[in-house]
Write a structure and sequence with these properties.
The structure holds 4 protein chains of 4 kinds.
Chain A: E1 4-11, H1 14-26, E2 32-35, H2 41-47, H3 54-79, H4 92-119, E3 139-144, H5 150-160, E4 164-169
Antiparallel strand pairs in A: 1-3, 1-4, 2-3
Helix pairs in contact in A: 1-2, 1-5, 3-4
Chain B: H1 9-18, H2 25-51, H3 66-90, H4 96-114, H5 116-120, H6 147-180, H7 183-193, H8 200-233, H9 245-271, H10 280-311, H11 314-325, H12 329-341, H13 349-352, H14 355-382, H15 397-420, H16 426-432
Helix pairs in contact in B: 2-15, 3-4, 3-8, 3-9, 3-14, 4-6, 4-9, 4-15, 6-7, 6-8, 8-9, 9-10, 9-14, 10-12, 11-12, 11-14, 12-14
Chain C: H1 2-20, E1 30-31, E2 46-52, E3 61-67, E4 70-76, H2 89-92, H3 94-98, E5 108-110, E6 116-118, H4 121-137, E7 144-148, H5 153-165, E8 170-173, H6 180-190, E9 195-198, E10 205-209, H7 220-231, E11 240-244, H8 250-253, E12 257-259, H9 266-279, H10 288-298, H11 303-310, H12 314-326, E13 330-334, H13 344-357, E14 365-371, H14 379-390, E15 396-400, H15 404-407, H16 414-418, E16 424-428, E17 440-443, E18 452-454, E19 460-464, H17 477-488, H18 490-495, H19 501-516, H20 522-532, E20 534-536, H21 548-554, E21 567-573, H22 586-590, E22 598-599, E23 604-606, H23 608-613, E24 620-626, E25 629-637, E26 645-650, E27 689-698, E28 702-703, E29 718-720, H24 721-727, E30 752-757, H25 766-775, H26 782-787, E31 795-801, E32 808-814, H27 824-827, E33 833-835, E34 841-843, H28 853-856, E35 864-865, E36 892-893, H29 899-911, H30 924-928, E37 934-938, H31 945-949, E38 955-956, E39 968-971, E40 973-975
Parallel strand pairs in C: 7-8, 7-15, 10-11, 10-13, 11-12, 15-16, 16-17, 21-26, 23-25, 29-40, 30-39
Antiparallel strand pairs in C: 2-3, 3-4, 5-6, 5-17, 9-14, 18-19, 19-20, 21-27, 22-28, 23-26, 24-25, 24-27, 30-37, 31-32, 33-34, 35-36, 38-39
Helix pairs in contact in C: 5-17, 6-13, 9-10, 9-11, 9-12, 9-13, 11-12
The chains are: A alpha+beta, B mainly alpha, C alpha/beta, D mainly alpha.
Chain lengths: 170, 443, 980, 165
């Protein structure tokens, strides 16, 4: 028992894809997913996506790293006070290096976390709309729609120059 | 810019994935030779662990010698990868696309090699984990004032970030490979692709994350070799205790790293017939960067001597006099000539556009940069404050074997990389190609 | 009870071996209780026993520290008048005699094939008894001969008595350095054939003609102490010291001036000085008549002729004479191999005359108490013995702890003659070249296991007691003699009432008790003597007069027969190996020779100019040839030998003296002639002419020195005397003020510190060996030393300043400076080295991972790394101090200021409910120092000696500009005024 | 992929097993040559610890009483018990008793009983409820953590060389 959940169009040309997006959005289709072998800003713009929130993860990670660095160095030094080289127990200049490195480390890990959570990777199964060609030389546009809307969407896709239109069934 | 014959996406896929096809006899012979050297190095290391560091040539007062030389050398090699992949990315330098994957791989493998040496050089390597930040016996933590702990943090962070960067960059390519591979390779690439499909959502977050990783990696790479240089500069050893060490080391690291990338790219390009992707133009750009770093390094050498002379400090001046004229003068002159004089040959366009010259000079720079670290470490320690404790270092078979083993270790990974991963980023090459438009124009 | 103590020891030796593995996971150990507790021994606590050092004939008093019944450290006995608590490196190493891995562990009997095979004590004694009985039956008892080293007191008496009972009087007390010329010269000049007391301390000028009194001559520890007292700066003055001899020895290096005269002309110079003193009317305390007669004697030695003969500038001769005559009193010393040429006696007579005219005899040269070394057999007596042996007059030869095969010139033929003796019996703790030739070998106790008494100077009765139970199946020499007498039966058995040597000893001490202290009961006297290490009588000096007549025949002009291209050979007793008996002690092998800085070897010192002329380079293996023999030795270029002279240290070149001694260099005695010096019958050490030829081979010499010069780095500093006098109470300079990034940290209770007086340090190395003993320092061997991996926590850096013709040697003991701002600490990633609240820079061995960063960052380079897990060949491991960790491979170590002693001192003070007092805690180096150059104490206590020394105008700290704030303050060596 | 994981996990397991086996054993209670019971002596008869381990007061080492000391009582007391007869056997053979050590410190540690006894630390603090034990068991594992915790609590010295030699 399969149910149609959308339709995917395969494009050979980037401008065709962009046109298809514009047509579909104009046609009231908002649940669109573009698939492309390379990243293109135009696609995001056409789809009207907002700026990625990954940078917030980076910022939070970085701040967390810095605080961890300072806390780690200062707290452990006070916890077991040992004098070395006549320096005070809390030798901030020496601790800056650790703080800096942890800022970077946590920032990078935060970024990675941001990427993984936002981009929904890793995933075990590829999407139903996926076609290996999308990683090679073809662009795809997956229109999420009900079975009633399939024909309209297909029309629009073809109209924009899709080489191939395929129904996606769940 | 990728030039040559008319390239399309499919062509690029085909050309670049071809490097991953089953290897020939030459490859396996290389691999075998490499593994033999590696095993010999491991045997030497085991001997050292079992018998004690005394089997190496290390002695009083030269307590650090070629193990730390190797450490600094390999960390330095790592730097060019990040420079090319992160800094040039931020500056939107277009020629990076074809070379950055290899450079990044060099970074990761060089760090994997460098990371061994702090352990190799320990007197009791079985306690290396005491350097890690965790609560130890009696509630004691490591000493965060020690530059060696800074090193642990810096190198560890660098290793993690480089790997994240490397694998992140690899993911879309892995998707390409996955889709074209069969059997266990499909499984492997499928795993590495992590379910990549190239959706707009994935791409949007991916480009953002990649940008931030590059932005983080840039200060990181500068900090790492600065921290490594502080291993020396924070001490009070004449010849080490100098404020110019951080920039001097960073420049030196990039210098050696670029040379290593050239050294590796040239055979790679030839073996895999990638002339269309790694063109003379790419190599020339690398050579131009080498001129820059070579000039900085040469300037640093002069500055060091100037400071030593101008400070009128007996200890400092003796250290530098000894460098140029003492027992290790040969190493010093190798360093001066190979690192700062020979790269000036790249000012001649004919030489920097000639592959054999490029290859030869890049190897000389590698040698020169290795000796730079050797000279800094060994000559300074050999002549410190107390003349009664002056001494010499002569390497013995164990030190040399472990050093050889470390090169084998690095090349083992590089050989595997060359055969199992795309040595040129497919996606970024595609990005550089004209986008396919209906009008057939550049997008 | 004895058996149990032994068992306990056995168990301990196993425990000790387990302890060596150090930081490894522990296996269940056994805990062995005493069957019956030994009162003195509390496990975990040290017990001390007073005894006497027998490493050389000087007879210093020693205290032995024992733990759980084993000796772990020896120190000087403060109550003993010879050394007053100090001890030299050789004395420290007596422990390695006790625990030497090559000790003879059971009796050995030579079988038909000529190899020594182990036998039981019973068999050995029975075998000997039957042979002796046979001899006695044949009436050959008169030919039984005993040869011992310098023995005094009860053991000496017992040997003589034993010999007499068997019908013989053939007895030799053999020492290679028997001071025959001194004794003969004293007989000729003053009518007493003795070695007198030399009072260095009260002298204001010392002139030494070849006498290496800081190294090996007569009683070096005593003389070093007196010398340091004489040299100390008091009331604007310090004593002066001039050394005359062909080689810059350690003693010469401590002089204001080293005057290198033509070899063999020291006597001429002395007579020249006498001439100047007489001519200028500087004579003290003599009658006009006597002066006149002396003038007649020395008339021919006018200073110009003397200058020609000796090579000393004429003005210099005059100046020297005036300087010496200014002495109030002065002291001229003569002796040592450097002046023991063919005219040794003449030289010594001249020196006696010099002392006499300067009014020193009776003041600084006193005939009473005299040295018991005066009783030593002469070299000529040894030659007579050899002749007797050759003729078959010696029916049996007994040895104990002497090695004439090694220490007599090969040309004398002792070894060959030994083959003619039908019965050779050796009683020895160690195998050596002579023991190897014996038919029967009895293993004896080492001095640390023995009862005995030693009288180095008249009236100075040092008492020896065993510090521990014997380690092996050995016997004391006295017990062996008594046992043999008992087994012989008949008169010999009846002659001795005593069952053991212990009883024999006590019997003699009863006599002493009667004579000295009959007011207390004997047991009290005995226990007190054991506690103090002996009883010490004051023996008054006896007046002597000069016998002028006798002198006139003696004073002919000395000369050395020269031969073109030949060198004068100067063999000299090594500071560390003496006559060779120290060569099997690893500590001594590893202790660098102070002047050459070489270890584990023997070499030929040749002047760089001579070397250049002959194309000789450092380390070239040379053939050294004399009319009497030939050896091969590596060359060491040394500006401290006079051109035309080559010098070889005595003591190496052993062929059968254990693993540490064998196969190192060559023995220079192979080059010496047989004939004795005619007047004294002593061995003419200086006589032969040698030629050198390169073999073309190279030899590795293991030097510990990275540089002879300090390149104006201010490590070893001096202050001219005049400058010091100008300060007189004023502050010399302000403390170096530096801008600090951080405030100084607090030391709540103590701040340990040290002061090292370079004016007192003579560079002898006693501190180095003391440190090895106290802190379980590993001995690494020649190859590792050559690599720079010696483990010494304290080293004596030797620097040479000034022009080569007038070298100024400076010694600096260098050890961890315990810096307040220690550069080693912040670089350690794991807090293995940190600053403790008492100002110590501590090293936590088991925390160390071995990055060696601390060593790189130490400007003083005093940190040592364990390149391997070093091994102590059994039973040397039994010496290990249980209070100090034995470090394993891969760990950094360094001076701790003897933290175990600090802990012990604090715990003791706490137990006694009082604060720690100045002087409670003395690190091993400071304790051993013969000149007390090292002072340790609490810098927080303003009254402590170290705090006061820190205010001394001579103070400085090494590399002050680095702002490491060391806890060690050095006091500059005082450079005397340029004149004289 | 799975193979790699299995290999990795297996390796980790082997490594931890090896590491664990190398660690000193804890809580040991080996059989002693004589089944001496602290429960009877210290527990039932309430003999003070320092009566037998007298050196604890004056020496770093608490020590074990000599065989002679044991015999002081056991010549008569409980002379019929088999374990006491074992003791007498040792005494008659003039052999020391090879007790098996339970509490020990590594070579690099300086520990002295004296200051601890003087400070009034109960023996049980470090040796556990020894008066209840028939056979001595390592009831307390003497690690550095434990030493430091107590020193911190009692404000005793935290200087490294107090314990490290």
């Amino acid at each position: 028992m399969s149910r149609v959940i959308g339709v995917v169009g395969v494009f050979a040309h980037l401008d065709d894809l962009l046109e298809a997006i514009r047509h579909l959005r104009a046609g009231g289709f908002e649940e669109l997913q573009a698939l492309s072998p390379i990243p293109r800003r135009e696609i995001d713009e056409a789809l009207g996506r907002r700026e990625s929130p990954v940078r917030v993860f980076t910022l939070v990670g970085g701040i967390l790293g810095g605080v961890t660095g300072l806390f780690l160095t200062i707290n452990t030094s006070i916890g077991y006070p040992l004098i070395t080289g006549g320096k005070p127990i809390v030798s901030i200049p020496a601790f800056i290096v650790i703080t800096f490195e942890l800022t970077i480390l946590f920032g990078a890990l935060g970024t990675l976390l941001g990427l993984l959570t936002n981009a929904r990777v890793p995933r075990l199964h590829l999407g139903l709309a996926f076609d290996p060609r999308f990683c090679s030389d073809r662009f795809g546009l997956f229109v999420h729609c009900t079975s009633e809307e399939v024909e309209t969407a297909s029309q629009l896709l073809r109209g924009a120059g899709a080489e191939e239109v395929r129904h996606v069934e769940a | 810019m990728v030039t040559g014959h008319q390239l399309g996406y499919v062509q690029a896929d085909r050309d670049l994935l071809k490097t991953m096809e089953p290897a020939g006899k030459l490859y396996y012979m290389l691999l075998l030779a490499d593994v033999v050297v590696l095993l010999w190095g491991i045997y030497a290391w085991m001997t050292q662990i079992y018998t004690g560091l005394g089997v190496s040539g290390l002695t009083h007062p030269v307590m650090w010698a070629i193990y730390i030389t190797n450490f600094v050398f390999w960390v330095g090699i790592a730097h060019s990868g990040t420079l090319i992949s992160a800094i040039l990315f931020l500056f939107r330098v277009r020629w990076r696309a074809s070379v950055y994957r290899t450079a990044e791989a060099v970074t990761v493998f060089a760090l994997m090699t460098a990371g061994l040496f702090p352990i190799v050089h320990l007197g009791r390597p079985w306690y290396f984990y005491w350097l890690l930040p965790y609560k130890q016996m009696g509630g004691l933590w490591p000493n965060f004032r020690s530059p060696l702990i800074w090193d642990v943090f810096a190198v560890f962070t660098y290793m993690i970030v480089s790997m994240v960067f490397f694998f992140t960059g690899l993911v879309p390519d892995m998707a390409v490979a996955r889709d074209q591979a069969k059997g266990w390779r499909r499984l492997l690439y499928g795993f590495l692709a992590q379910g990549w499909q190239g959706t707009d959502r994935q791409w949007r977050h991916y480009t953002s994350a990649y940008l931030f990783l590059a932005a983080l990696a840039t200060p990181l790479v500068i900090s790492v070799h600065s921290v490594v240089s502080w291993d020396f500069a924070m001490s009070m050893v004449p010849g080490w205790h100098s404020t110019i060490f951080a920039p001097y080391f960073v420049a030196g690291a990039i210098h050696s790293g670029l040379a290593m990338v050239i050294t590796l790219l040239i055979p790679l390009r030839r073996v895999f017939r990638l002339d269309a992707y790694i063109t003379q133009w790419h190599l020339e750009n690398l050579a131009k960067l080498v001129i820059l770093t070579g000039l900085i390094v040469g300037y640093s050498y002069v500055t060091e001597y100037f400071i030593a002379w101008y400070s009128d400090n007996t200890f400092e001046w003796e250290s530098f006099r000894y460098r140029a004229l003492g027992h290790y003068a040969w190493a010093f002159w190798i360093m001066i000539i190979f690192n700062s004089l020979i790269p000036l040959l790249f000012f001649i366009k004919r030489l920097r556009t000639s592959t054999p010259w490029l290859f030869g000079i890049s190897i000389l720079i590698n040698i020169g940069m290795w000796f730079e670290r050797f000279v800094i470490i060994v000559t300074s320690l050999a002549r410190e404050y107390d003349p009664y404790s002056w001494g010499l270092y002569t390497p013995r078979w164990v030190d040399l074997s472990i050093t050889a083993g470390s090169f084998a270790w690095f090349f083992l990974w590089f050989l595997l990389f060359a055969k199992f991963l795309p040595v040129i980023s497919i996606v970024e090459v595609k990005e550089e190609l004209p986008a396919p438009l209906k009008a057939g124009e550049t997008g | 009870m004895e058996v149990n103590r032994r068992d306990f020891l056995k168990v301990l030796s196993i425990g000790g071996a387990a302890a060596l593995t150090g930081c490894s996971a522990q296996a269940p150990e056994k805990l062995i209780p005493y069957l019956i507790p030994v009162e003195e021994i509390i496990p975990g606590k040290a017990t001390w026993y007073a005894t006497v050092c027998r490493e050389c004939p000087a007879g210093c008093g020693m205290l032995v520290r024992t733990r759980e019944g084993r000796a772990v450290k020896v120190e000087g006995n403060p109550d003993h008048p010879v050394n007053r608590g100090r001890l030299c490196a050789r004395g420290q190493a007596s422990l390695q005699g006790l625990y030497n891995p090559d000790r003879i562990r059971q009796p050995l009997l030579k079988d038909a094939s000529g190899t020594l095979k182990p036998v039981s004590w019973d068999e050995a004694e029975a075998w000997l008894i039957s042979r002796l009985a046979e001899l006695l039956q044949q009436g050959k008892g008169v030919g039984i001969t005993w040869m011992t080293p310098h023995l005094t007191g009860s053991p000496d008496r017992l040997v003589n008595q034993w010999l007499k009972i068997l019908g013989s009087t053939r007895r030799l007390r053999y020492e290679p350095f028997a001071y025959e010329p001194i004794r003969t010269a004293n007989r000729l000049t003053f009518g007493r054939e003795v070695i007198p007391t030399y009072d260095l301390e009260s002298s204001t000028v010392i002139l030494a003609f070849g006498a290496d009194f800081l190294e090996t001559w007569i009683s070096p520890v005593m003389y070093a102490r007196e010398f340091a007292a004489m040299r100390a700066y008091k009331d604007g003055r310090m004593g002066r010291f001039i050394f005359i001899g062909p080689r810059l020895s350690l003693t010469a290096a401590n002089a204001d001036r080293w005057i290198s005269v033509r070899p063999g002309t020291e006597g001429v110079l002395a007579l020249g000085l006498v001439g100047v003193i007489v001519a200028e009317g500087l004579v003290k305390g003599l009658s006009q008549d006597e002066v006149g007669r002396i003038r007649a004697l020395v008339d021919c030695y006018d200073f110009k002729r003397v200058s020609e003969a000796t090579g000393v500038e004429p003005e210099e001769v005059k100046r020297l004479a005036r300087t010496f005559a200014e002495g109030d009193p002065g002291l001229a010393l003569g002796g040592g191999t450097a002046v023991s040429g063919p005219h040794a006696t003449t030289t010594l007579v001249a020196i006696n005359l010099l002392n006499y005219v300067a009014g020193n005899v009776g003041r600084t040269v006193r005939f009473g108490p005299v040295s018991t070394l005066s009783q030593l057999s002469t070299y000529r007596e040894m030659l007579d013995l050899i002749q007797a042996m050759e003729k078959g007059q010696v029916s049996a030869l007994f040895f104990s702890e002497v090695n004439p095969v090694f220490t007599m010139p090969k040309a004398a033929g002792f070894e060959r003659a030994l083959g003619k003796v039908p019965l050779v019996v050796s009683c020895s703790s160690f195998m050596d070249e002579t023991v190897a030739k014996a038919h029967l070998v009895f293993p004896t106790h080492t001095p640390l296991e023995s009862w005995g008494d030693v009288e180095p100077w008249e009236g100075m009765h040092g008492l020896m007691q065993p510090a521990m139970q014997p380690l092996f199946e050995t016997k004391a020499l006295g017990d062996l003699l008594l046992s043999l007498a008992k087994r012989l039966g008949g008169p010999p058995a009846q002659a001795f009432k005593e069952e053991s040597f212990y009883e024999y000893l006590r019997a003699r001490w009863r006599e002493l008790h009667q004579r000295l202290q009959s007011d207390v009961d004997f047991e009290t006297f005995w226990v007190e003597a054991l506690r103090r290490g002996g009883v010490f009588e004051a023996i008054p000096a006896q007046p002597v007069r000069l016998n002028v007549q006798a002198l006139s025949q003696v004073l002919e002009e000395p000369e050395l027969a020269g031969q073109a291209d030949a060198f004068v050979l100067l063999p000299y007793p090594s500071l560390v190996h003496f006559d060779g008996r120290g060569a099997d002690r690893p500590w001594l092998q590893e202790l660098p020779d102070p002047m050459t800085q070489l270890t584990w070897d023997n070499w030929l010192e040749v002047h760089p100019e001579d070397a250049k002329r002959h194309g000789i380079e450092e380390g070239d293996l040379l053939t050294v040839k004399s009319p009497d023999g030939e050896i091969e030795l590596p060359a060491h270029l040394y500006a401290g030998v006079r051109p035309g002279v080559v010098a070889i240290p005595i003591g190496q070149g052993h062929t059968a003296f254990g693993r540490h001694a064998e196969g190192r260099g060559a023995n220079p005695l192979a080059l010496l002639p047989k004939e004795p010096e005619p007047r004294s019958g002593g061995l003419p050490w200086l006589s032969p002419q040698v030629t050198l030829a390169r073999t073309g081979k190279k030899h590795l010499l293991a030097s510990v020195s990275g540089s002879d010069r300090q390149f104006d780095r201010g490590i070893a500093q001096v202050i001219p005397l005049a400058e010091l006098q100008a300060y007189a109470g004023k502050e010399p300079h302000d403390e170096h003020k530096v801008l600090q990034m951080y405030p100084p940290h607090e030391h709540p209770n103590h701040r340990w510190g040290m002061a090292i007086d370079l004016n007192a340090c003579i560079g002898c190395g006693a501190c180095v060996t003391a440190c090895y003993a106290e802190n379980n320092l590993a001995v690494v061997g020649k190859e590792e030393v050559a690599r720079g991996r010696e483990m010494s926590w304290i080293r004596i850096e030797r620097y040479v300043e000034g022009p080569p013709e007038r070298p100024e040697t400076r010694f600096v003991p260098m050890l961890c400076q315990h810096c307040d701002n220690a550069p080693c600490e912040p670089v350690c990633p794991v807090y293995a080295t940190v600053h403790n609240p008492e100002g110590l820079n501590i090293q936590v061995y088991n925390r160390c991972v071995g990055t060696r960063y601390c060593s790189n960052n130490c400007p003083y380079k005093v940190r040592r790394f364990n390149w391997f897990t070093y091994k102590w060949p059994e039973p040397l491991n039994l010496q290990l101090n249980p209070d100090v960790t034995v470090r394993e491979m891969g760990v950094m170590e360094k001076c701790t200021f003897c933290v175990q002693r600090i802990t012990e001192g604090k715990e003791r003070a706490k137990g006694e409910g009082r604060p720690v007092r100045d002087g409670d805690i003395v690190p091993a180096c400071a304790q051993a120092c013969p000149t007390r150059a090292i002072v340790f104490g609490d810098l927080k206590d303003p009254e402590s000696e170290v705090s006061r020394l820190r205010q001394n105008p001579r103070r400085y700290r090494v590399f002050e500009h680095l702002n490491t704030q060391p806890a060690i303050t050095y006091l500059k060596r005082i450079r005397p005024s340029e004149e004289a | 992929m799975k193979t790699i994981i299995i290999v990795l996990l297996g390796g980790l397991l082997l490594f931890s097993l090896a590491a664990f086996s190398l660690l000193p054993q804890r809580g040991r209670a080996p059989e002693q040559p004589i089944a001496f019971s602290h429960k009877i002596h210290a527990g039932d008869y309430q003999i003070p610890c320092l009566y037998c381990h007298a050196n604890a007061r004056r020496s770093p080492v608490a020590g074990i009483p000599s065989v002679q000391f044991c015999m002081g009582c056991h010549k008569i007391t409980a002379a019929d018990k088999p374990e006491v007869q074992k003791l007498q056997g040792y005494w008659n053979r003039k052999e020391p008793i090879p007790w098996i050590r339970i509490y020990d410190q590594p070579d690099f540690v300086h520990f002295s009983h004296t200051p601890h006894v003087q400070a009034g630390i109960a023996c049980q603090q470090c040796h556990g409820p020894i008066e209840t034990m028939d056979r001595v068991r390592e009831a307390v594992v003497l690690t550095m953590d434990r030493c430091v915790a107590c020193h911190q609590k009692r404000q005793a010295s935290l200087d490294c060389v107090t314990c490290h030699k």
